[in-house]
């Protein structure tokens, strides 16, 4: 095992976190009003008694952006985990279906499916992961007669105090980062570099975010508000959920 120093972490994280901020901003600037009106639940926002166009647009946009950011950042964390394991245990990105990382440690071959957090999937998705583990174990087992193959669902944050799931292990947060690095404090060490230029990048984002709020609010008011200024919920729901006519 090779110990990972802070400089190596910083040299990987800083340019890649820049990419996260860039993609986050690009996604915002590409958005159209119909993107958020079609993909979010209008019934929920009516139930929350949102009655102004600006409040509705802000709520819809925030919910939409949050989902996108989770996906972008989850991809970054997966890349970070693979990078760390490459240094510590010569780990490599797996070519097996549904497996993200493979490495050897203490005479065991680990196959890892990486997820952002512990509550990532429904029963069908978990069953699919189990199937992928079984296939990968079968293939690896035919080549490695004397090496145990251990399947791991690695979650970048969170806690699961019952990691043994029978046919695989679920390691979350500290357990996961410790497994792939050999360093039990790594899960804390990575937090500081993630803040690289965060205020500057977020300030730039907020300038464009406010412009989008104003633009979408104006467009929404023109299309989905009555003459006296009330939100026309029937028209909005029809756009979101009604049958499309030719």
Features:
single chain; 246 residues; alpha/beta
The profile of the biggest β sheet is: 5 strands, mixed
Shape: elongated
Q: How many alpha or pi helices?
A: 9
Uncertain segments are none
In short:
With about 250 residues, this protein is α/β, with parallel strands linked by helices. The protein is about 60% helix and about 10% strand.
Describe this structure in words.
The protein has 246 residues and is an alpha/beta fold. It has one domain (6-241). The protein is 59% helix and 11% strand. It has 9 helices and 5 strands, in the order ααααβββαββαααα. It has a 5-stranded mixed sheet with strand order 1-2-3-4-5, with helices on both faces. The protein is elongated and about 75 Å long. The mean pLDDT is 92.
Secondary-structure topology with pairs:
Blueprint: H1 6-30, H2 33-39, H3 42-47, H4 53-89, E1 92-93, E2 101-105, E3 108-115, H5 123-143, E4 148-155, E5 169-172, H6 174-181, H7 186-189, H8 198-224, H9 233-241
């Amino acid at each position: 095992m090779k110990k990972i120093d802070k400089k190596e972490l910083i040299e990987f994280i800083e340019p890649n976190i820049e990419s996260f901020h860039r993609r986050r901003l690009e996604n915002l600037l590409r958005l159209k009003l119909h993107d958020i009106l079609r993909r979010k639940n209008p019934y929920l926002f009516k139930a929350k008694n949102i009655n102004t166009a600006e409040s509705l647009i802000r709520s819809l946009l925030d919910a939409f952006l949050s989902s996108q950011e989770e996906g972008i950042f989850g991809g970054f964390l997966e890349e970070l985990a693979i990078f760390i394991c490459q240094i510590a245990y010569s780990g490599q990105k797996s070519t097996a279906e549904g497996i993200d990382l493979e490495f050897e440690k203490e005479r065991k071959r680990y196959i890892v499916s990486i997820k952002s957090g512990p509550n990532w999937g429904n029963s069908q998705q978990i069953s699919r992961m189990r199937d992928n583990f079984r296939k990968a174990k079968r293939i690896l087992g035919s080549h490695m007669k004397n090496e145990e193959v251990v399947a791991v669902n690695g979650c970048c944050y969170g806690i699961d105090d019952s990691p043994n799931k029978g046919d695989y292990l679920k390691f979350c947060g500290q357990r996961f980062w410790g497994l792939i690095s050999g360093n039990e404090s790594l899960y804390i060490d990575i937090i500081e570099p993630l803040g690289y230029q965060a205020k500057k990048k977020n300030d730039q984002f907020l300038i464009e975010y406010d412009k989008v709020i104003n633009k979408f609010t104006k467009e929404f008011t023109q299309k989905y508000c009555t003459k006296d200024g009330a939100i026309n919920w029937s028209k909005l729901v029809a756009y979101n959920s009604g049958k499309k006519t030719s």
